[in-house]
Specification:
- The structure is a single chain.
- This protein is α/β, with parallel strands linked by helices and 356 residues long.
- The protein has 2 domains: 1-102 and 254-356, Isopropylmalate Dehydrogenase, CATH 3.40.718; 114-251, Isopropylmalate Dehydrogenase.
- Helix content is 40%, strand content 21%.
- It contains 11 helices and 12 strands.
- It has helices at 15-33, 46-52, 60-64, 82-96, 158-174, 191-204, 216-225, 237-251, 291-303, 307-321, 337-347; strands at 2-11, 35-41, 69-74, 101-107, 123-129, 139-144, 147-152, 178-183, 210-215, 232-235, 258-262, 270-274.
- The strands form 2 sheets. It has a 10-stranded mixed sheet, sandwiched between helices. The chain has a two-stranded antiparallel sheet with strand order 6-7.
- Helix 7 (216-225) packs parallel to helix 8 (237-251).
- The chain starts with a strand and ends in a 9-residue tail after the last helix.
Length: 356
């Protein structure tokens, strides 16, 4: 039986609760489709940092290198600054394995209500550049006669822009054929005009895509005023990060928003993680919503070459969200993490096509 090697990092807070739920669901659907997931659980987290002074051991990246995929829960804990947890674990993984696409699909799932009054159809794929841009370590803090100064440099390369834009335009071809590129070239005078130029060059190779650029502030507003008009949105690391959180809120909750950190070439393992954080305020209470983590699992299965299994997982998610009694607190209900876990597993189809 085909076995995929998965490095599982539950992390902190609710990550330790929702990741095991996803493992149960994924193991169940894998058995129905004739393949296995071989889990290698790693304890790297803010708790690991407190004990060892680092978010992962010195050979951490080498230990991940041979995995077929990385499955992450959530990182973050009071007392550990975010820049330590992010730059100590997540960002090194993304960059060492050239996971240059951060794909964040968002849709209004059956039964869920958007906080927007008249939100009907909402199904958007946000493509975020994931290895350069504004999230750079270039810069520093300096003392000057006029006072302290902090400088943060953004790094945009032609190669980095071209490849993520090409992924986004290709995705638009496979979806509704519409794309919006997030920019701010009316205020950021070097990097954003460069991004716009490369966008136009890549667009020329995709004549079937109806595309336009929008300034980030206007685009963020459009997520609120006209969410049904959006299909594929592509942006830099910062812009994609902000827009995907706005989109998750429009869809009803961060608790249902997945993401995939992809190396589309397949040369390195890709990483799958929810958009939500570790939520220390509810951790340990058994009330966390596991749907985002399970949806990450569906993205992982599709990436590993099992689209039918991924579709079964997504169908189970839609069946569960359609039931008001199975909504967790973030969705206005009272269901527990275990209630949703059991329902998701039960909602999987009992049979499957022959393994392949």
């Amino acid at each position: 039986m085909n076995a995929h090697r998965i490095a599982a990092i539950p992390g902190d807070g609710i990550g330790r609760e929702v990741l095991p739920v996803a493992q149960r669901v994924l193991d169940a659907v894998a058995s129905r489709h004739g393949f296995e997931l071989s889990w290698n659980e790693l304890p790297w987290s803010c708790s690991w940092y407190a004990a060892h002074g680092a978010m992962m051991p010195p050979d951490g990246l080498d230990r991940l290198r041979d995995a077929d995929a990385i499955f992450l829960g959530a990182i973050g804990q009071p007392g550990v600054p975010d820049h330590i947890s992010q730059w100590g674990l997540l960002i090194p993984i993304r960059r060492a394995f050239d996971q240059y696409v951060n794909l964040r699909p968002v849709r209004l799932l059956p039964g869920l209500e958007s906080p927007l009054r008249d939100c009907g159809r909402f199904d958007v794929a946000i493509v975020r550049e994931n290895t350069e841009g504004e999230y750079s370590d270039v810069g520093g803090r300096f003392a000057t006669p006029a006072g302290d100064v902090a400088v943060q440099e953004s790094i945009f390369t032609r190669r980095g822009c071209e490849r993520v834009l090409r992924f986004a335009f290709d995705l638009a071809c496979d979806r509704g054929g519409r794309l919006i590129s997030a920019t701010k070239s009316n205020g950021i005078m070097h990097t954003m005009p460069f991004w716009d130029e490369v966008t136009a060059e890549v667009a020329a190779g995709h004549p079937g895509v109806d595309w336009r650029r929008m300034h980030i502030d206007a685009l963020a507003a459009r997520f609120i005023t006209h969410p049904e008009d959006l299909d594929v949105v592509v942006g830099s690391s910062l812009f994609g990060d902000i827009l995907s959180d706005v989109a998750a809120a429009v869809s009803g909750s961060l608790g249902v928003a997945p993401s995939a950190n992809l190396d589309p070439t397949g040369d390195h393992p890709s990483m799958f993680e929810p958009v939500h954080g570790s939520a220390p305020d509810i951790a340990g209470r058994g009330v966390a919503n596991p749907i985002a983590q399970v949806w990450c699992g569906a993205l992982m299965l599709e990436h590993l070459g099992h689209p039918e299994a991924a579709a079964d997982v997504l169908a189970a998610i839609e069946a569960v969200t359609a039931e008001p009694a199975l909504r967790t607190r973030d969705l206005g209900g009272r269901a527990t993490t275990e209630d949703v876990a059991a329902a998701l597993t039960a909602a999987l189809p009992p049979t499957s096509p022959l393994p392949h």
